[in-house]
Amino acid sequence: MALDPDQPLVDVERREQSRLLQFIRRRVPDARDAEDILQDVFAELVEANRLLMPIDHVTGWLFRVARNRITDLFRKKRPERLPVSSDDGPGFDELLPALDGGPDEEYARQLLLEALKEAIDELPEEQRAVFVAHELEGRSFKDLAEETGVSVNTLLSRKHYAVQRLRARLRAVHDEFTT
Asked: Is it the case that residue 61 has pLDDT exceeding 80?
């Protein structure tokens, strides 16, 4: 009986798929994009194997490729509006009425944008600075880290807390409009 030359790759995929998908989903709000990235990562593993590229630590390599694919996705898809929703509640996009709505939607949109501005102004300074720089000005965490001397992980954490606070605050405003 002949051994399948791709069996080690199948074993790696089975072993790492769940962890890798969780890693990607925490960073990519759209489930389809996350699945695409996961497939790209494993496709790159197959390609590296076929090209006989030496990979010392497969798990680390997979996560590095996933981070690179996530970065590529966000470079390609700069948000035109505020961040989209995640599993823990409505996102800013869902809170704002459509741009092409009538006068009522335009009025509601203006009120929500004012509430967003107030909510951003109420954030602690460190969280506000990171949120504004990354989401509104489109600056990278790497550039912010170099400029401020604060680690990328700390900046990510500050932005995460800012987004949580903004969601909670805007959820209440949104509920006023929908009830």
From this structure: yes
